[in-house]
Amino acid sequence: MNVPAAWYLILAAGLFGIGAFGLLTRRSALIMFMCIELMLNAVNLTFVTFSRTLNDISGQAIVFFVMVVAAAEVTVGLGIVVAVFRRRSSTSVDELSELKG
Amino acid sequence: MIATTYAIQWVLVFATSALLILVGAVGVISVKNPVHAALCLIMTLIGVAVAFVAQLADFLAAVQIIVYAGAIVVLFLFVIMFLGVDRREHIHFEPLVGQRAFAGVGVAITVAGLITLMAKSHWVSGAASVTTKLSSGNGNVRELGTAVFTTYLFAFEATAALLIIAVVGAVLLARRERATPEEEA
């Protein structure tokens, strides 16, 4: 018998927490993107776990779409990082303060 | 109660994936060099793929390795090396006072809330097998393909449009602006 779904759900919650902590504390835009990937993966793991629990393929179909959107997000996000780096020579988000009131 | 009721191989698979996921994730947020962070990210992604295989998501595990570890992390590494930012970040520098502590408290509350919800409530509710059964004997790829091309056909077409928009947007953003003479003046 496979391990209960709760084990994987708690693992996914931990992964989400680690990703959220990194997103809140790191300053390099690249590392922040990686932390977003961690959080997306935690959500994917949750979807697959519920898909197994409910014996339904829909969860896996949604994970498929999450992966597509994540790929698009990374492409555009890294494009923005490259464009910002070209102007500021830094990927630190603290230096992007032009809109500060 | 826990150790005896579940087969040892599933426990081992879970332990392997949990170890890969957590060590990789802690590595991503704690190492200083972005290249090492990307390699730790690959470790986490492979751990998630192991968890996918253990939970009857074979196709997604393959996609996880090919798309995430193969394409997204390579894109990260390409940008890191293209920009030349593979030097160390000052990780202990803290411009906002107490930011790390507040982030830790907020994340701890969130994760504790999630785990409490899971422990105290009926977190699996609703009808089972609404779309297609997970294990109807046709194989995971076939079932997932059927679901994507019938139930989720509109969403699938929308992702096609999204990918085109993303590619065009990324090219437009990253393209070096060729300055015309009047712009330079």
Could you characterize the architecture of this molecule?
The complex is a heterodimer of chains A (101) and B (185). Chain A contains 3 helices and no strands. Chain A has one domain (5-90): Orthogonal Bundle (Helix Hairpins). In chain A, 76% of the residues lie in helices and 0% in strands. Chain A has helices at residues 5-25, 29-53, 58-88. The longest helix of chain A has 31 residues, at 58-88. Among the domains of chain B are: 1-89, Four Helix Bundle (Hemerythrin (Met), subunit A), CATH 1.20.120; 138-177. The N and C termini of chain B lie far apart (77 Å). The relative contact order of chain B is 0.06. The chains are: A mainly alpha (101), B mainly alpha (185). The interface between A and B is large, with 73 and 91 residues.
DSSP E strands of chain A, number: 0
Unreliably modeled segments of chain A: none
Question: What order do the SSEs of chain B take from the amino end to the carboxyl end, as H and E?
Answer: HHHHHHHH
The most extensive contact between chains is: A-B, 73 and 91 residues
Give a brief description:
The complex is a heterodimer of chains A (101) and B (185). Chain A has 101 residues and is mainly alpha-helical.
Provide keyphrases for this structure.
heterodimer; A: 101 residues; mainly alpha; Helix Hairpins; 76% helix; 0% strand; elongated; B: 185 residues; Four Helix Bundle (Hemerythrin (Met), subunit A); 8 helices; extended
